Amino acid sequence: MANNRKKIKERWFVPAGMEPTDMDRRILYWQEKGRIVPTPDLIKTAEQIEGIRRAGVLNTAVLDTVQEKIREGMSTLEIDRIVYDYTTSHGGIPAPLNYEGFPNSCCTSLNDVVCHGIPSDDEILEEGDIINVDCTTILDGYYADASRMFVIGRAEPDAQRLVDIAWECLKVGEQVCSQPYVFVGDLGHAIADHAHKNGCTVVRDLCGHGVGLQFHEDPDVLHYGRRGSGMLLVPGMTFTIEPMINAGDWQVCGDEEDATEWIVLTEDGSLSAQWEHTYVMTDNGVEILSH
Ligand code: MF3
Ligand code: CO
Ligand code: CO
């Protein structure tokens, strides 16, 4: 049977007898113009934001602990243990553990690993390595997600530069969100522009995401795109920005030897770097909840 039934987009709803708020008016305005606007469930209550904020504080502390302890000669599985021990001893749960078959408590993505690297006993950190450690913490049912790059010892200038450009890309995206009612495409456009100006590329197959009540929620936060495309970001939304920036081409691929099919590599073997924060959009732009 031919399926020609198209889902009708729900119209933003103002309860009968209620004065539309400034936010209601702005959402209705953009929806009428055919833009993508959030569904009501993506706008968190003050109580939910407080919960996500607390999860964010713990998640940041986990990454601070990794930062304190990471060193040359350590295995990526040791990093995983630090994350597991710190998180659980502070009442949290590492969200990656057993998430859709992921076997560990964090992702450790070394050099040409773009993301979702799996901690391993026989992966030893060496001078000059660049590594992303990505942690997501569940606390009292709320989620916060952040990642940092670490440079082991002194890196080659090109590697250090990639790490710095990736950081700048995150901050360029954040800057675009210094006021509410911008579109995801606005920040994606700015990030890709900054990467390209610096001779780097943006991974297209993976993106940031809403976060807070679940690990991955709407909207998709693409790190490239057209201004005005993607979802409108309004106060009360919680989401990540997490650009993956490659030194070579943007294409990615899987690892034949990885039975879990989680690990993502650069197709050309070039280096990749990523930083991630969790944010809440407010009336005055984004506030960082985990970094
Ligand atoms: N933390 C990653 C993100 O930024 C997702 C990792 S999923 C996992 O969205 F299962 F690999 F942990
Ligand atoms: Co994320
Ligand atoms: Co993450």
Outline the structure in words.
The protein has helices spanning 22-32, 46-69, 76-89, 157-176, 184-197, and strands at 93-94, 107-110, 113-115, 130-139, 142-151, 182-183, 201-202, 208-210, 217-221, 232-233, 238-241, 244-246, 252-254, 264-266, 272-274, 277-282, 285-290. By secondary structure, it is an alpha+beta fold. Strand 16 (277-282) and strand 17 (285-290) form a beta hairpin. Helix 2 (46-69) packs across helix 3 and helix 4 (157-176) runs antiparallel to helix 5. It is globular. One cobalt (II) ion is lined by residues 134, 136, 145, 147, 276.
Helix proportion of residues, in percent? 25-40%
- Tell me the overall shape: globular
Order of helices and strands: HHHEEEEEHEHEEEEEEEEEEE
Number of strands: 17
Ions, cofactors and other ligands present here are:
2-amino-4-trifluoromethylsulfanyl-butyric acid, cobalt (II) ion
Strand content: 15-25%
Amino- and carboxy-terminal Cα gap? 49 Å
Mean pLDDT: 97
Uncertain runs are none
The number of distinct helices, counting runs of at least 4 residues, comes to 5
The description of the largest β-sheet is: 4 strands, antiparallel
